[in-house]
Amino acid sequence: MWRRRTCRAVRNIQLREDGYTYSPYVVLTRVGPFSLHLHCTDANLIDGEGLIHDRMDMRWLGLLVAVLTMTIRVDRSERVVGSGPEASVPD
Q1: DSSP string of the chain?
Q2: Average of pLDDT values for 37-52?
Q3: Are 68 and 42 within 8 A, CB to CB?
Q4: Contact, 53 vs 73, CB < 8 A?
Q5: For the residues 10-34, what does the mean pLDDT come to?
């Protein structure tokens, strides 16, 4: 069964020389019949090759319950025109 999820993000971003960090935030999630408030911290490091290494720590009652990591590579081989959902790649 699909559940509708909503997200309202009001966060500050702290820029550093080697990346950026979002201010802590809370995510409401369901595990079985239970609703949990997970307190999250999210740090992004940019390496010498331009890769973004993202690490999100999620805590419940102060206990680390999940860590989400991802590496993002920006493809700069094609120029994108515009921004948002209407952005396009020129022919």
Answers
A1: ------------EEEETTEEEEEEEEEEEEETTEEEEEEEEEEEEE-TTS-EEEEEEEEETTEEEEEEEEEE----SS--BSSGGG-B---
A2: 92
A3: no
A4: no
A5: 89
Among the listed residues 57, 71, 70, the one whose alpha carbon sits nearest the alpha carbon of residue 26: 57
Buried b (16+ CB within 10 A) or exposed e, 63-91: eeeeeeeeeeeeeeeeeeeeeeeeeeeee
Predicted confidence at residue 4, as pLDDT, reads 57
Q: How confident is the model at residue 77 (pLDDT cuts 50, 70, 90)?
A: confident
Q: Hey, how many other C-beta atoms are within 10 angstroms of the C-beta on 58?
A: 19
Total length of the chain: 91
Backbone angles phi, psi at 30, to 5 degrees: -110, 135
